[in-house]
Design a protein that fits this description.
By secondary structure, the protein is an all-alpha fold. It is 77% helix and 0% strand. It comes from Pelosinus baikalensis.
Length: 70
Amino acid sequence: MQQNSLTQKERAYLKDALELENLCIAKYSVYADQCVDHELKNMMFSIAKNKRHNANMIKQELGNSEFLYQ
């Protein structure tokens, strides 16, 4: 997203999406820690890393519009 302002509904959606991404990060990190197979462990860590990137993008977008709805 490149726009400067978000509606409250859009912000609420992004906050929900951020919560889901954070839940996935936690779950995949736990799954990776429990894996014995090295290849599967790496895949779980890779998914968690991708989810962390997604969460950071959402945080960035929320931060860019933060001043509008304080």
